[in-house]
Every structure is written in structure tokens, then in C-alpha cells.
Amino acid sequence: MDIRVRRVLDEALERVQGPDSSPAAFAGNYAFCLGILMGACASGGVSEREADEERAHLMALAALFEVRQKIKLSLLN
After folding, report:
1. Would you list the DSSP string of 33-56?
2. Helix or strand run (H / E) with residue 66
3. Which of these, 75, 77, 69, 71, lies nearest to 21 by C-alpha position?
4. Tag placement on the chain: N or C end, fewer CB within 10 Å?
């Protein structure tokens, strides 16, 4: 993976992993990360294998976000 792509993706992933992000903010940051990966694949900055690994990481973060949201809702009730 190109070092510049890695740096930008890491910065975007920090936003996705924010503990107190709203669902809308999470969705926007998630989409931003996917866009980075798509652009990097198209320009040759990342291999398909690396992009697949990063997308899997994003899916795991999305699942974790959903769990956090459900826990927050259950604590409010």
C-alpha cells in the first residue's frame, strides 16, 4: 500500500473509531473510508487484497458500532 494512502486511510479510520460518534457521523466516515479504498484501487495505490483486508476491518468496526449503539439504547431503557 502506498504510504500516502495508508496515512490518509489511518486518519479516516480514527474518525470511524471515535467512541461517541453519532450514527450519521459514523456512516459518513465509513463511506469516506470506502471512497479512499475505491480511489486507491483505481489508481494502483492499493492492491485488491489489501483493499479487501481494509474493507473487512471496516465491517468489523461497523459491527462494533452497532453493538455499542444497542448497549446505549438498552441502558436508557
Report:
1. HHHHHHHHHHHTSS-HHHHHHHHH
2. helix 48-76
3. 69
4. C
